[in-house]
Design brief:
The chain is mostly helical. The chain has four helices and no strands.
């Protein structure tokens, strides 16, 4: 008896949906960049403003997550969990378009 493993090769979502999510990611990135610039300016103006510094760091992390998602779109792996390779549900990507992992993997990463 022969056994085989089925691997997820590509998400079943049409490319047009990825284009919509790419535009959403680009818009979110631009917003994060603007907000980070404001937070950095606040941190500089009120030395040291720990709240503004923390917000700037969080926004920088979000920008990195968005950039990673945009790279996954460019190379064709967007929508696949970076940990297990299974498809990330479309609903999760609609809510969190920069999600790198499926819910199960993200929960076990915590």
């Amino acid at each position: 008896m022969s056994t085989f493993t089925v691997h997820e090769s590509a998400p079943a979502t049409p490319e047009a949906a990825w284009d919509e999510l790419r535009l959403l990611l680009e818009s979110q990135r631009a917003h994060c960049v603007r907000q980070r610039e404001l937070a950095v300016a606040e941190a500089i103006a009120a030395m040291p403003d720990q709240v503004a510094l923390s917000r700037a760091a969080s926004l920088f992390q979000r920008i990195k997550e968005i950039d990673a998602a945009l790279r996954r779109i460019a190379i064709g792996t967007y929508g696949l969990c970076v940990y297990c390779g299974h498809s990330i549900p479309q609903g999760r990507l609609q809510v969190l378009p920069f999600a790198a992992g499926c819910v199960s993997c993200q929960e076990s990463a915590r």
